[in-house]
Specification:
The chain folds into 2 domains: 241 residues, Aminohydrolase, N-terminal nucleophile (Ntn) domain (Glutamine Phosphoribosylpyrophosphate, subunit 1, domain 1, 4-Layer Sandwich); 190 residues, Rossmann fold. The protein contains 19 helices and 25 strands. Helix content is 28%, strand content 23%. The strands form 7 sheets. A 7-stranded antiparallel beta sheet has the order 4-3-5-2-11-10-12. Strands 6-7-8-9-13-14 form a 6-stranded antiparallel beta sheet, covered by helices on one side. Strands 18-21-22-24 form a 4-stranded parallel beta sheet, sandwiched between helices. The N terminus is likely disordered. The longest helix has 15 residues. By secondary structure, the chain is of the alpha+beta class. Its cofactor is [4Fe-4S] cluster; Mg(2+).
Length: 494
């Protein structure tokens, strides 16, 4: 559903808008520390950029059993209340922040909010999932025909029902059994009464990391959430790995057939926080490298390099350093954009972008400006920003984009429009330049992006090192449900 008025941005990531790709969620878990739910709340706060729609925490204490709290909105508004946190006792807890990609997008019911909980013969278990199950519709139909009763519209609930039907002896084995039936992308944190469990799909599309906190352990979507609780980053969970953690230690094994990793390259470009570490590389440094590659590939005579805040900032710094063109904050972001209650007249509605971003007129006037952004999806925001820059008196506007053209939808845990709504799916680079009415428009090449993330030889076309389906149309896992609904995969001719 659209917001009630143009300033109701409570459903959006801070500084984000409807013209950005949105990560589905963040997951976090802790075992072996007192008041584990408090640590989880802090971790989820650090992962808020991965989902602002809703959040939930499940904890376990022997005396109280499993306890849960699920709420709409930001972590800061829900899980900083002492009254709420006192209902979540114990030394073991997991949590989830959500932006819906599967399920009732924009119309989330509280029953769709994770973590999900199930009571099995050998005891209860809770699960939180980051990613998308690409055969969820088929699994759901099969499970319903066999008597399962679903409570939510989320694809993640399929995992709980598959676990319930498994004949394996304990929860970790049932989870293995269930996940072998699942296709797509999944990073999972789960908990039993005594164990914290982490799993990544065989391709490792979505991230998951392990940390040590005091005498206990933590699992997180990103390292930045370990930092906030003072945890030591130990390592990434490997693709296809399952770890079963108790306060005494970590057991690891690989229940799935080993495959070459296909980690999501867009995590490096945009989704992850710049202070996180991915694949042993600083996300910030990678984004700066992207800017440097972009400057090598697409130089232009200009007076200033300006980021589109905040996601374009590291790449703009890299572009400036490589090109020698001064870096400047030509667009200022309002850090306190929130919900207001102004009547949504058409005049007010058109001011939406200006609420979040404003041009530094004194700096821009008369200048040839390079604007660096992370992506162009529909192009609506790019046009508005260009108009603001020209209104401020810029002599020229040149867009440089820190990712290749996004021409294909993602089915692995990212909210993307239908293909026909993606600008790059229907236009060439020159046609997009004319559509946006800018002096020039250049995207980083796919090989350039691979070089920036550390692949000196660029992209291996025979066996790509990352999942780049949103750019290349080459899906490492066939999106079975979408194909059944009529989605046309890339042909050899394309």
């Amino acid at each position: 559903m659209p917001p009630a008025h143009p300033f109701d941005t409570s459903y959006l990531r801070d500084g984000d808008d409807e013209d950005k790709l949105k990560e589905e969620c963040g997951i976090f878990g802790v075992v072996g520390v007192a008041d584990a739910a408090n640590f989880v709340a802090l971790g989820l706060h650090a992962l808020q950029h991965r989902g602002q729609e809703a959040g939930g925490i499940v904890s376990y204490q022997p005396e109280a059993g499993f306890q849960s709290a699920r709420r709409f909105g930001y972590v800061r508004d829900n899980f900083t209340s002492q009254a709420v946190m006192e209902t979540l006792p114990g030394e073991l807890a997991i949590g989830h922040v959500r932006y819906s990609t599967a399920g009732s997008k924009g119309q989330t019911a509280i029953r769709d909010v994770q973590p999900f909980f199930g009571e099995f013969a050998m005891g209860g278990a809770a699960i939180a999932h980051n990613g998308n199950i690409t055969n969820a519709n088929a699994l759901r139909r099969e499970l319903i025909e066999r008597g399962s009763i679903f409570q939510s519209s989320s694809d993640s609930e399929c995992i709980i029902h598959l676990m319930a039907r498994s004949l394996q002896r304990n929860v970790p084995e049932r989870m293995e059994d269930a996940l072998r039936r699942v296709e797509g992308a999944f990073s999972v944190v789960a908990m039993t009464r005594t164990k914290l469990i982490g799993v990544r799909d065989p391709l490792g599309v979505r991230p998951l990391v392990l940390g040590k906190v005091g005498d206990g352990w933590a699992l997180s979507s990103e390292t930045c959430a370990l930092d906030i609780i003072g945890a030591e980053f130990v390592r990434e969970i490997e693709p296809g790995e399952m770890v079963v953690i108790t306060p005494s230690g970590v057991e690891s094994h690989f229940p799935f057939r080993r495959q070459p990793s296909r980690f999501c390259i867009f995590e490096h470009v945009y989704f992850s926080r710049p202070d996180s570490i991915l694949g042993g590389r600083s996300v910030y440094e990678t984004r700066e490298n992207i800017g440097r590659e972009l400057a090598k590939e697409s130089p232009v005579d200009a007076d200033l390099v300006c980021p589109v805040p905040d996601s374009g900032t590291p790449a703009a710094i890299g572009y400036s350093l490589e090109s020698g063109i001064p870096y400047a904050m030509g667009i200022i972001r309002n850090q306190y954009m929130g919900r207001t209650f102004i009547e949504p007249t058409e005049q007010i509605r058109n001011m939406g972008v200006r609420l979040k971003l404003n041009v530094n007129r004194a700096l821009i006037k008369g200048k040839r400006v390079i604007l660096v952004d992370d992506s162009v999806v529909r192009g609506t925001t790019s046009r508005k920003i260009k108009e603001m820059i020209l209104d401020a008196g810029a002599a020229e506007v040149h867009f440089r984009i820190a990712s290749p053209p996004t021409a294909w939808p993602c089915f692995y845990g990212v909210d993307t429009p239908q293909r026909e709504k993606l600008l790059a799916a229907t236009m060439s680079e020159d046609e997009m330049r004319d559509h946006l009415q800018v002096d020039s428009l250049k995207f980083i090449s796919l090989d350039g992006l691979y070089r920036a993330v550390g692949e000196a030889g660029g992209r291996d076309s025979k066996c790509p090192q990352y999942c780049d389906a949103c750019f290349s149309g080459e899906y490492p896992v066939t999106p079975a449900d979408k194909v059944n609904e009529g989605f046309k995969m890339k042909t050899a001719a394309e």
